[in-house]
Design brief:
alpha/beta; six-stranded parallel beta sheet; 13 strands
Length: 482
Amino acid sequence: MPDRRVLVVGVDGVRLDILRRLPTPHLDALAADGFLTPVEVDEETPTMSGPCWATIVTGVRVTKHGVWSNTFSGNRLDVFPDFATRLAEKDGRRTYVAAGWQPLMQARGGGPLFRAPARSTYIAPAADTPEAWEDCDENIVRDAERVLVEDDVEAAFVYLGAPDETAHYRGCGAEYETSVRAADARLGRLLAALRSRPSYAVEEWTVLVVTDHGHADGGGHGGRTPEEATAWLAACGPGIAAPPPRVRHVDVAAQAFAAAGRHIDRHWTLDGRPFAAAPHAVLFDMDGTLVDTESLWLRTVRASAPDVDVDRVLGRSVADTASHLHTLSGDDPRDLAADLEARFLAAVREEAAPLPGALELLDLLAESAIPAALVSASSRTVVDAVLERLGADRFRTTVAEGETPRTKPAADPYLAAARALGVDPTACLAVEDSPTGVRAAEAAGCRVLAVPSFAPIAAGPRRTVVPGLKGVGRREVWTAGL
């Protein structure tokens, strides 16, 4: 598996409208490689640092984590911990947090927000003044640079607080803009530290830069004006391109887990979801998805029943189709099945060919170390004939009709493939061309990339529809079904 890692940089209190008119070359370069998009603070969440940062790093709303102000008393952070603590405790990941704001790091007033990362840096400002906070951020970044270069950090959070403090004391004028530009320069140093890692060439880093809230013109926040309630997120990394229609604060932690290669456990009940996540495996339908056999199948069926309903036979097994044809003709379903199988197999051996983009997508997955499986409603004989065209070594496992208690549209074939690969089906992407296959994949909990062949398929939750596999690349695979 690729060595996937994530850096989250939290810059407190940076107004989006002011940010957009400032020269911030490091943030601009990051956004050019990915995106920068507004994030609206939820109506239920006070526009204060405590509630917003708790939502950002836990991935749950304020009603769950229970941080309602800058005093953290009464929180539920033991139930909904920050992403750095979860990764350290659940998976033994090497996580790192660096911050100078006391509630984030120290057990006072109900804190800390970051409960137990593997490593941390806390350097408090000498005073609550803009100048002291600039010095604090400088010290934090200096230490973070060293740790990011020298330590085996897999997930990190670095907090910069000077812009927020400057706005509180001086308003959102020239000194505030200077502080924002200084934060951008410090971001550049953190990015340079990543690139200086001895193992950087074999690592895949995702970088997320986020603010918690904005400010009123004169400084301060807590209201619902657009200037206070509009935050933002910049993101770049594997699979990240244009922003989704809406990004929320709860999505940041979810994306951090995905960027670290960690599938979100449903028992965590996170409210966020990632906007780009490498699937732990890709499970392919065969007929009409990877090879042009669906037309051969329909031709075979129509030779016996010219007026057959396509929806009753598309993506179905030979046995299911024969059973349906029996209701139309009265012929023995066993004889029908044998005849269908023989004629279809002959057509596959003579005419089957990979569909445009199929081999290229399989090669991309191999290059990305993402296992592929073949999950078909066709018989083993037909599957093996197709594998001769596709290359059996492209797939870690294959599932054919009759090898599970039920076939599509039941979930059994997809569950069997995921089990054989040792992955959670909800972390898998299924690629299907028929409504029957989509129902099977979704019943197993998979994300779905649909490439409709003969029957239309509508987009839906955890389902992305594209016209074909040609042109489907890394970003499409990383974002499909999210």
